[in-house]
């Protein structure tokens, strides 16, 4: 007999404007792994968002799970993994962070690591290099986080947001590494003070659930959006149209190229319908904040053939 688990991890958006590398929000778009112990390694992709041409040894799930096991002096046993994903790759919806979080949980289960939530936050954020997407995928909801020099994460966690979110996904990829290349190496003091103040006001508005201010400060970023906007299809047009249609605010999702709007839930249907007419070349999805974060279900035992 062999155990079988289902690991579900929400995708996420990061930054929400000026909350650069520190604010994350989980979304109800998911990565799902069905895992069982096996005699040999097998990873099966079941979604169009997942590539069909890959090697086990270079697969992100395998490499991160193996690395996690090694941190605790464990050897990762062979597994059969079926993967489904609603997260397009390199679009700014936390696909890599979700995979990292799922891989850590995989190692936790099959190697009996007994990781705490704090362990999962620390390890995933260390691997990502920043805590925004990873903490949101682990905890669900909204997270405001910092990763210190020792690799420890401190997070303020907000579970409930009374709003909906609309993502505008273009048919182009933009890797975070490429999007970081257009950022300035430094800012002058006055500019940095203004940028920091806007980030502080966004964080305070999110904690207070002041949606009008959330929208205002989402659109007041000085850290990255002014420099990345030229890489994003229809960035200015989406901003303007979303505001005209009643959005609280609109920002890049992570490094882009996806753009995300926060909107009042009562206008969700009409907002999406209008945006689909205006931006037919984008995939436009209505989503919400996921409030659970990573979840694991043991789905029974298989007979090992």
From TrEMBL:
GO molecular function annotations of the record: ATP binding; homoserine kinase activity
InterPro entries registered for this protein in UniProt: GHMP_kinase_C_dom (IPR013750), GHMP_kinase_C_sf (IPR036554), GHMP_kinase_N_dom (IPR006204), GHMP_knse_ATP-bd_CS (IPR006203), Homoserine_kinase (IPR000870), Ribosomal_Su5_D2-typ_SF (IPR020568), Ribsml_uS5_D2-typ_fold_subgr (IPR014721)
Pathway: Amino-acid biosynthesis; L-threonine biosynthesis; L-threonine from L-aspartate: step 4/5
Signal peptide (residue range): none
Record-linked Pfam families: GHMP_kinases_C, GHMP_kinases_N
Binding site for ATP: 88-98
Keyword hit for Disulfide bond: no
Swiss-Prot/TrEMBL catalytic activity: L-homoserine + ATP = O-phospho-L-homoserine + ADP + H(+)
GO cellular component, one term: cytoplasm
Subcellular location(s) per record: Cytoplasm
Residue stretches making up the GHMP kinase C-terminal domain: 203-279
The UniProt record lists the keyword Metal-binding: no
GO biological process: threonine biosynthetic process
Domain GHMP kinase N-terminal as annotated: residue spans: 60-141
Keyword line: Amino-acid biosynthesis, ATP-binding, Cytoplasm, Kinase, Nucleotide-binding, Threonine biosynthesis, Transferase
Enzyme Commission designation: 2.7.1.39
Role summary: Catalyzes the ATP-dependent phosphorylation of L-homoserine to L-homoserine phosphate.
HAMAP family: Homoser_kinase
Alphabetical list of PANTHER family matching this protein: HOMOSERINE KINASE, HOMOSERINE/4-DIPHOSPHOCYTIDYL-2-C-METHYL-D-ERYTHRITOL KINASE
Entry's family note: Belongs to the GHMP kinase family. Homoserine kinase subfamily.
Protein name: Homoserine kinase
Phylogenetic classification of the source organism: Bacteria, Bacillati, Bacillota, Bacilli, Bacillales
Gene from which the chain derives: thrB
């Amino acid at each position: 007999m062999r155990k079988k688990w289902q690991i579900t991890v929400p995708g996420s958006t990061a930054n929400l404007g000026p909350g650069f590398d520190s604010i994350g929000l989980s979304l109800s778009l998911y990565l799902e792994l069905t895992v069982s112990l096996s005699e040999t390694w097998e990873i099966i992709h079941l979604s169009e968002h997942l590539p069909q041409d890959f090697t086990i040894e270079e697969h992100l799930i395998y490499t991160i799970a193996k690395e996690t096991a090694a941190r605790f002096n464990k050897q990762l046993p062979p597994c059969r993994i079926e993967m489904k994903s609603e997260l397009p790759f390199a679009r700014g919806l936390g696909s890599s962070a979700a995979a990292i979080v799922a891989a850590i949980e995989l190692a936790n289960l099959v190697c009996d690591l007994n990781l705490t939530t704090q362990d999962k936050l620390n390890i995933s954020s260390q691997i990502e290099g920043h805590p925004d997407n990873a903490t949101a995928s682990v905890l669900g909801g909204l997270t405001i986080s910092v990763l210190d020099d020792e690799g420890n994460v401190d997070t303020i966690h907000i579970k409930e947001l009374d709003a909906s979110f609309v993502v505008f996904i273009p048919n182009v990829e933009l890797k975070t590494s490429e999007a970081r290349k257009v950022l300035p190496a430094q800012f002058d003091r006055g500019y940095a003070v203004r940028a920091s103040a806007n980030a502080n006001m966004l964080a305070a508005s999110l904690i207070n659930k002041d949606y009008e201010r959330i929208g205002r400060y989402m659109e007041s970023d000085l850290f990255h959006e002014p420099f990345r906007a030229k890489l994003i299809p229809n960035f200015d047009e989406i901003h303007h149209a979303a505001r005209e249609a009643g959005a609280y605010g609109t920002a890049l999702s992570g490094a882009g190229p996806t753009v995300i709007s926060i909107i009042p839930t009562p206008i969700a249907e009409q907002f999406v319908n209008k945006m689909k007419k205006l931006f037919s070349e984008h995939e436009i999805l209505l989503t919400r904040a996921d409030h659970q974060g990573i979840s694991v279900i043991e789905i029974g035992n298989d007979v090992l053939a």
